[in-house]
From TrEMBL:
GO terms for molecular function: protein tyrosine phosphatase activity. PANTHER family: LOW MOLECULAR WEIGHT PHOSPHOTYROSINE PROTEIN PHOSPHATASE (PTHR11717:SF7), LOW MOLECULAR WEIGHT PROTEIN TYROSINE PHOSPHATASE (PTHR11717). Its EC number is 3.1.3.48. This is protein-tyrosine-phosphatase. Gene3D superfamilies: 3.40.50.2300. Keywords: Hydrolase, Protein phosphatase. The active site is at C8, R14, D124. It comes from the Bacteria. Signal peptide: none annotated.
Amino acid sequence: MVSVLFVCLGNICRSPMAEAVLRHKIMQRGLQDQIRVDSAGTGDWHVGSIPHEGTRKLLDHWQISYEGMVARQVIGKDFEDFDYVIGMDNSNVENMRKLAGYDEAKILKFMDLLPDEKLREVPDPYFTGNFEEVYQLINAGCDILLDKIIREKL
């Protein structure tokens, strides 16, 4: 089983949105028995919380399930357990590199999936309120990521 972990700051906006979107795309392609997806935050402020209301509203609009998702903090073992660990911004990636040690090579920055985009980090809608912009980036990036996983691992 191929495994993907999305990481943002608090695990209530960007990373759970990416988790839900990629899970949805995996189910659409019938690959749910071959790829698993999770998300986590570098901080612990929201551990145990459900996704942010803005993320939930947007996912509801697109009929994408976030059932059972609760925030957790990334831990060192995640770098052993996951094939792809994807940070939403430079700060997330830097924090993960400090935690990862020898597994640093597994860490990717989400926007590297979208090299033609002007933005180089996924904006944090917790601060900007622009959940739609974040969804558009995540939706496009998850298409590319899923194709990459199929090409590299399946």
